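ERR on first pass: missing label on line 2. Operator R.T. fixed the label and resubmitted. Corrected input:
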Amino acid sequence: MGTHAEAHSHHGIGLYVKIYVALLVLLLLTVLAAKLHLPGYGPILLAMAIATVKATLIVMYFMHMKGAGRLVALMFLMSVYVLGVGAVLLFGDYFYR
Amino acid sequence: MSHSSNPALAHQFDSIEQQRESSVLGMWVFLVTEVMFFGGLFAAYMVYRYLYPDAYHAGAALMDVPLGTLNTCVLLTSSFTMVLGVHYAKLGDVKKVQQMLWITFLAGIGFLIIKSFEYHHKYEAGLMLGKLFDPSKWAHHGINVPANVAPENLHLFMCLYFFMTGLHAIHVIIGMGLMVWLVWLTRRNRATGEFYMPVEVVGLYWHFVDLVWVFLFPLFYLVGTI
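pass 2 clean. output:
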């Protein structure tokens, strides 16, 4: 039983190391991407895309959303959804006044 | 009931598993309120950026990218040590949990020290808020603000910067307090094995603080153009 638990834990740590390295690589990417000086909305769209990937990795693996059950996932997505609705209403107001 | 003999199980729950799910769900409810809390500030940031792109550009140019990058590294590392702490707490390895919690705590201190260097520089350069916002000091510190940028609009940028990073820093400080509390719990054997839930829940909080920084960092330090 001890060996089984150890093998299992080892696998877990390996996954965390991979996620950690991926996060550092994405950090490097986002810093380098800022130096590209893309035109128009390019920089912010690219930076937000990378930040969203980082956030997804953190939520899924560090915060154990994967395997936390549907209720937790639904609630978290609801907050993102409400935030999105708020943003759309807010910018609908500012863009078209 | 038979399960009442288990000291790790509060009497209102049927099983450890149900208790665990309730704790995690409860923490996520709190984190949802935090998403809305920071969401309001991010909305203010977006509106500001839309209204004053030139002032935003001038403000973003004043950020210290190397220190910001270093701080992101520190926070990501602390998230990694935190998740290891949760992992060892589940396995019941008290010593390793304590090590991971202390490393996470130290990373929090490191983050705040680096942040204070940045804040101090802004203070010296006359970029703090209110009366400490002093355009006459700028030239002396090599700060060039384009003539078409109204100082009050740049002041607004610094308001957003200090408010959002400051609120984030307060969250880091609270998180560090929680680390100390967890270490105290582990010494009483109340945060490992079947009792590991406090570590898991504080872990969720710490990762959320990291999550906020993942968005703050590019928005303030990296994305300079419109």
